[in-house]
Amino acid sequence: MPTSISGAFPAAGHGEDSFLEGQLLIAMPGMGDERFERTVIYVCAHSEEGAMGLVLNQLARNISFPDLLEQLQIVSSPEGIRLPGGGSRRMRVHRGGPVETGRGFVLHSDDFRIENATLAIDEGVCLTATLDILRAIAENRGPHKALLALGYAGWAPGQLEDEIRSNGWLTCPADADLVFDDALETKHGRALRKLGIDPAMLVSDVGHG
Fold first, then answer.
1. Domains delineated in the chain
2. Among 61, 82, 146, 162, which is most buried by a count of CB atoms within 10 Å?
3. pTM over 0.70
C-alpha cells in the first residue's frame, strides 16, 4: 500500500482540556507497552475527544526520505531532490506511532505554512500532512526545521490521563532541540534531565508510596 500524507488532523482542544498540546511525554519504566519503551512523544492534539502525538526518537524501518519521495511520485529519482549538501540523505523518516503507519506527518518550525493545511501547535511548532510540504522540502524551500513521521500515537478519551496517573508517562515542556535534533539515542535521557531526573536513578514505581 503506498504511503500517504494527507487527511484531517485529530481534533485539537482549547482551554483547560488542551493543556498537554505542545508538551512532551516521556516514557517511564512502568509503561508496560514495549512499542513505547524509552520513547519521547510530542503531543500534537489533546481534547475531550482524546489525544494524538508523534514519537520523536524512533526511526521507520526500510525506508529513506528519497525512497518516500519516489514512492509518492514527488520526484522521479533522488537526483530530483535539491537539498544542499546531501540533506535529503540526512533527513530521516521516523516512526511516529503504531496508528495508521502508512500516513505521513511533518512536524516543523513555524517559518513555513500552507493555508488550510498547517496546524499551529505551540512555541513555534506546526504540523502539516500534505504532499506540498514534502515537495517544498525536496526543492529546498521548506521549513528550516522538520521531522517527518509515518504513523502516530493515539489515545481514546481519558486514556492518556489514566496512563499518566498510572506512572506510564512524565510530561515536560518541549524545546526545539528535543523536538528536531538527530540525537535520537540520547533524547529520552535529555528529556528526563529537563525535569531534574537522573535516568540511572529512575525506577518503575516512582510516585507510589
1. 15-201 (3.40.1740.10)
2. 146
3. yes
